[in-house]
TrEMBL record:
PANTHER family: 7-DEHYDROCHOLESTEROL REDUCTASE (PTHR21257:SF38), DELTA(14)-STEROL REDUCTASE (PTHR21257). GO terms for cellular component: endoplasmic reticulum membrane. Its EC number is 1.3.1.21. The lineage of its organism: Eukaryota, Viridiplantae, Streptophyta, Embryophyta, Tracheophyta. Pfam families: ERG4_ERG24 (PF01222). PROSITE patterns: STEROL_REDUCT_1, STEROL_REDUCT_2. This is 7-dehydrocholesterol reductase. Gene3D superfamilies: 1.20.120.1630. Keywords: Cholesterol biosynthesis, Cholesterol metabolism, Endoplasmic reticulum, Lipid biosynthesis, Lipid metabolism, Membrane, NADP, Oxidoreductase, Steroid biosynthesis, Steroid metabolism, Sterol biosynthesis, Sterol metabolism, Transmembrane, Transmembrane helix.
Length: 433
């Protein structure tokens, strides 16, 4: 598990303990500030200064029966779609221990069924999504505690009943809980836990809550502001892109390298629904009228960024699928043939793409992803900083991920990675970093 120790042990332990203790209350404070404090960090800070810890406890909603029911129905529905909807058989990358996970690629179908069902329940008066918004604090509170228990289950499962040989302990209970024990935990043979937490619960909730905020604004004001329409449209386009490309996501660091613990699973069960959707959460009570021209400019710029982000991933996926026998921007791709040794002592080769988007920088796809987040946040304009927290967080997350990925590849490929870095010298931003 040394691949996760990108920093010194002391820095790692302090960071882990800080995140374990600060992330849960931050989620509640974010919700409270967006919904009850006019989006003003200063207003919330003054309240906490005057009331201290007692004040935090007073604004922390208790998980209610309604909140637990909403979560349970949603989780059961998504789990059923994951298990029973038809889908193409897809193999993930071979793990360090030599295991190759098999998935059923039915994310796009699940996404379509989820949105149609949710909107249908509202349209026919069976269930009003406004109920979700009105119980949002209680839902987040329930998710915080429920997901901590779930992560404890993953920790125990990793010790007593691992799903594969891709499981192990660092020897430190806190690190094991935070980073996780298992790479590919499953319940039974077919229910992949990380696909559920990351994709079907976390990413799906992003779309569901985006629609919820839109419907809440409509039912409150009798109309949906163009700022909310731009925000919701861009978020839905982004999540649609994600599920269209879901099988490619199973090859990324989140699934193929990061184990199932607090960092990934609690993050996707709690942090994604609360933080990633927060610009829309703010806009519910702060409708901004952009005007048709500005709204269209932002919408087009955001869609362009999402497309470039998708095309980066598509380009690399096609390059790998064809073993380099494809065209990249109309030409034969430039590449490096890198050999490496597996943990079992086998020598294997990988192709490293050095042209197209991947010739601009080693992680260029993070640039349009950060810009897309900016474009679906900028409809909130600049009265308050807090709607931009997700953009700042995403930038820090992706820059850290790029460093961890570079460190892992340097360790894996050795001299070939050095050669790759000479051909593609910039890590993320071409010409700058």
């Amino acid at each position: 598990m040394g691949e996760n120790m990108a920093h010194s042990p002391l820095v790692t332990y302090v960071s882990v303990l800080s995140l374990l203790s600060l992330c849960p209350p931050f989620v509640i404070l974010l919700w409270y500030t967006m919904v009850h404090a006019d989006g003003s960090v200063l207003q919330t800070a003054n309240y906490l200064r005057d009331h201290g810890i007692q004040g935090l406890l007073q604004i922390w909603p208790k998980p209610t029966t309604t909140a637990w029911k909403i979560i349970a129905f949603y989780a059961a529905f998504e789990a059923a779609l994951q298990l029973f909807l038809p889908g193409k058989r897809v193999e993930g990358p071979t793990s360090p221990a030599g295991n190759r996970p098999v998935y059923k690629a039915n994310g796009l179908q699940a996404f379509a069924v989820t949105l149609v069902t949710y909107l249908g329940l509202w349209w026919f008066g069976i269930f009003n999504p406004v109920i979700v918004y009105d119980h949002l604090g209680e839902i987040f509170s329930a998710l915080i505690f429920g997901s901590l228990i779930f992560c404890l289950f993953l920790y125990i499962k990793g010790h007593v009943a691992p799903s594969s040989t891709d499981s192990g302990s660092s020897g430190n209970i806190i690190i094991d809980f935070y980073w996780g024990m298992e790479l590919y935990p499953r319940i039974g043979r077919n229910f992949d836990i990380k696909v559920f937490t990351n994709c079907r619960f976390g990413m799906m909730s992003w779309a569901v809550l985006s629609l919820t905020y839109c419907i809440k604004q409509y039912e409150t004001y009798g109309r949906v502001a163009d700022s909310m329409l731009v925000n919701t449209t861009l978020m839905l386009v982004y999540v649609t892109k994600f599920f269209w490309w879901e099988a490619g996501y199973w090859n990324t660091m989140d699934i193929a390298h990061d184990r199932a613990g607090f960092y990934i699973c609690w993050g996707c069960l709690v942090w994604v629904p609360s933080v990633y959707t927060s610009p829309g959460m703010y806009l519910v009570n702060h409708p901004v009228n952009l005007g048709v021209q500005l709204a269209l400019y932002i919408l087009v710029a955001g869609i362009l960024c999402i497309y470039i982000n998708y095309d980066c991933d598509r380009q690399r996926q096609e390059f790998r699928r064809t073993n380099g026998k494809c065209l990249v921007w109309g030409k034969a791709p430039s590449k490096i043939v890198a050999s490496y040794t597996t943990t079992s002592g086998e020598t294997k080769t990988s192709l490293l793409l050095t042209s197209g988007w991947w010739g601009l920088s080693r992680h260029f796809h993070y640039v349009p992803e950060i810009l897309a987040a900016f474009f679906w946040t900028v409809p909130a304009l600049f009265s308050h900083f807090l709607p931009y927290f997700y953009v700042v967080f995403l930038t820090i997350l992706l820059f850290d991920r790029a460093k961890r990925d570079d460190d892992r590849c340097r360790s894996k490929y050795g001299k070939y990675w050095k050669l790759y870095c000479e051909k593609v010298p910039y890590r993320i931003v071409p010409g700058l970093y």
